[in-house]
Amino acid sequence: MGLIVQKFGGTSVGSVERIGQVADKVAKFRAQGHDLIVVVSAMSGETNRLIDLAHAVQERPVPREMDTLISTGEQVTTALLSMALDVRGVKAKSYNGSQVRILTDDAHTKARIREIDDKRLRAGLDEGYVLVVAGFQGVDEHGNITTLGRGGSDTTAVALAAALKADECQIYTDVDGVYTTDPRVVDGARRLDRITFEEMLEMASMGSKVLQIRAVEFAGKYQVPLRVLHSFKEGPGTLITLEDATQMETPTIAGIAFNRDEAKLTILGVPDMPGIAHKILGPIGDANIEVDVIVQNTGEDKHTDFSFTVSRTDLPRAMDVLQSVAGQIGAREVRSDARIAKVSVVGVGMRSHAGVASQMFAALAEVGINIQMITTSEIKISVIIEEKFLELAVRSLHSSFGLDKEPNDEGAA
Ligand code: ASP
Ligand code: MG
């Protein structure tokens, strides 16, 4: 028995029937004697509907009024869930962000939490209530309603769990956990029992569909044990936690992540001299374009080729910037390629296991995939390859690193 923060996403509270099912689940935990804070999102589709309404009235809606509008969806579900709990004989009370006092900065539509006043919540818990709190919203120091960015209810849940030192923060959603890779790409993808915060962040390309990345960062910083579970199916889900030094059998690789949303730019025949990288990437940064993988190599003729990747939507702008840079620094040619993809193997076990990179390269070589760029961090190795080989690469790596599930494993997607 302890304090649990549970968060239910938009599809989990998407209809009155589903709100009833959520109430059944909450009531079950309550019957086990847990103290509960339940954070809810708006009904699925509701936040989008409200945003569309705003744009129908004003091309660029006033941010303060946008927040007043889009925070209403969560207020609806807190009240409905509290009623559904009442029907089931469970004492419950709804709270919006300002009633709790989730104090944020004043950056409307992307506010950051500064402080949570836990006094009212503690008093409510002590009186034996299940507290149903609106996700995604807060209030600034002047009392203006703010919101935390799309998907922000996850962050609300983690922040409340941190502020109240909850024993666990459970995120209920429409998948039953975090997988070794995308089950739509690899049939044999397996649900992970546990994954570290660091790995989860590196798996962002898949993880972000499960959890708001900011919530994972927050949970890591405040060491809040996070569990991702299916709202309506029984199962242990995936625990996201600190690295456990006592676990002898840490698997080397947690999973295979990938990203199709990158494009590569190459500037050829650049004079090899100090300051060149800055001359190339400075203007890219000034244009607010984020750079991911960078490779530079100097040939024998005192010229260098310089390649980097950006998000695919930024490619046209990056190309414009690079064309003008090329003229200024006397480069020979600029090329771009949008048909690339990034594949990464991720795992904290890499720190103590040599040979992960060579195993990765061998697996790709075996299926004839050419590697265009390589980048590594302490717990991740990424390669850029031709996009059409992406699925083949992910499947080969998944089986090469022994991540495929046994044919008799349960819990497949
Ligand atoms: N309702 C908000 C959104 O759709 C917040 C959330 O669901 O987490 O982004
Ligand atoms: Mg969500």
Structure notes:
The chain has 413 residues and is an alpha/beta fold. It has a domain at 3-173: Acetylglutamate kinase-like (Carbamate kinase). Helix content is 35%, strand content 26%. The chain is built from 14 helices and 20 strands. An eight-stranded mixed beta sheet has the order 3-6-2-1-9-11-12-10, sandwiched between helices. The mean pLDDT is 93.
Topology summary:
Layout: E1 3-8, H1 16-31, E2 35-40, H2 46-57, H3 63-70, H4 72-87, E3 92-95, H5 97-100, E4 102-104, E5 113-116, H6 119-126, E6 130-134, E7 137-139, E8 145-147, H7 153-163, E9 168-173, E10 194-196, H8 197-202, H9 204-210, H10 213-222, E11 226-230, E12 238-241, E13 255-259, E14 262-271, H11 276-286, E15 291-298, E16 303-311, H12 315-329, E17 333-337, E18 340-346, H13 356-366, E19 373-377, E20 380-386, H14 390-400
Parallel strand pairs: 1-2, 1-9, 2-6, 3-6, 9-11, 10-12
Antiparallel strand pairs: 4-5, 7-8, 11-12, 13-18, 14-16, 14-17, 15-16, 18-20, 19-20
Helix pairs in contact: 1-4, 7-10, 11-12, 13-14
The protein binds aspartic acid and magnesium ion (MG).
Magnesium ion (MG) is lined by residues 9, 151.
